[in-house]
Design goal:
Blueprint lengths: L24 E5 L23 H11 L3 E5 L9 H7 L6 E5 L7 H9 L2 E7 L5 H14 L5 E5 L8 H6 L5 E3 L14 H12 L2 E5 L2 H4 L11 H10 L4 E3 L15 H5 L2 H4 L3 H16 L2
Parallel strand pairs: 1-2, 2-3, 3-4, 4-5, 5-6, 6-7, 7-8
Length: 288
């Protein structure tokens, strides 16, 4: 089966219509390339376009972000060199979330920490027993470094969301608002458990990927608004925002990143609340 090739992101992001606070952080983005320098795993789900740090930094400047969290994409497996090389460009303003396997050692985590990593990402969309065992092993090791576990999964299809993640010795960050179809609404059992973990202070959620879960094709993704608002209400001190640039593994029309950012005032009308989501919360979570 051929590997789908992703479209390039929109090169002309619109300017935000609200005042961005100083030290605002984009908490979810990826970099790809140079593709000749960093080989991708052969069993990947997609082939991204080259999306270098220079293009991403243009986006950050345009939208008014001064900080960023670069997340290891699945196409590189556990080879975190491209992600860490990007973070090394501005170690005071960039952080990384890396991918490791269950055999990772404390020495390796310590090295990643020195290079700006503050969390591990686990893709649990298609999780099996080994993936769950790996997550438990990884969590035990990263707990000593005060890292978090970032998870990509549909919380409405994952069994025992509350029990599993509450049992880990680290805080959990849910990608893309729990990554479930917006039509299921916040009343879906897995979403209620995610919100319960947030209320307890055990979990964080990223306001990102609205275009992935919405039934609508262009911003504003109004069917996602009640979900985003419920997440913020659950615990406004455990919420961050991410663009998800350059939007890999997405087959529909590419979203405009400025339009994605402009949803935030609809979700969080109060400027003080946006200050927490864009600045204060990321500073705590990613150790800026």
């Amino acid at each position: 089966m051929s590997i789908p090739i992703c479209a390039a992101p929109d090169p002309n992001p619109t300017l935000p219509t609200f005042d961005m606070p100083k030290r605002a952080c984009d908490c979810h983005a990826h970099v790809f390339g140079p593709l000749s320098d960093f080989p991708m795993v052969p069993d990947r789900l997609y082939t991204p376009p080259e999306a270098p740090l220079s293009s991403y930094e243009h986006l950050l400047t345009t939208l008014g972000f001064e900080r960023s969290v670069i997340v290891q994409p699945s196409v590189y497996g556990t080879d975190n060199r491209a992600t860490l090389q990007a973070v090394a460009r501005h170690p005071d303003r960039y952080r990384a979330v890396v991918v490791v396997d269950g055999n990772v050692t404390p020495k390796e985590i310590a090295s990643f920490h020195q290079q700006g990593a503050r969390g591990v990402r686990a893709n649990l969309l298609f999780s099996g027993d080994k993936a769950m065992a790996d997550v438990r092993a990884i969590a035990r090791i990263i707990a000593d470094f005060d890292w978090h576990l970032q998870v990509l999964l549909d919380v409405t299809t994952f069994p025992d969301v509350y029990a599993f993640f509450d049992g880990l010795p680290v805080e959990v960050v849910f990608d893309h608002m729990g990554h479930f179809p917006a039509e299921k609404t916040v009343n879906a059992p897995g979403c209620r458990e995610m919100l319960k973990l947030m209320e307890k202070g055990k979990a964080w959620t990223k306001l990102s990927g609205a275009y992935r879960t919405s039934a609508q094709t262009h911003a504003p993704y109004e069917d996602v608004t009640p979900i985003a608002q419920a997440i913020i209400q659950a615990n406004p001190d455990q919420v961050v925002f991410g663009t998800d640039w350059p939007h890999p593994h997405f087959a529909k029309d590419m979203p405009n990143d400025g339009a994605l950012l402009d949803q935030l005032p609809d979700w969080a009308p109060d400027p003080e609340l946006r200050q927490r989501i864009l600045v204060d919360n990321p500073a705590r979570l990613y150790d800026f």
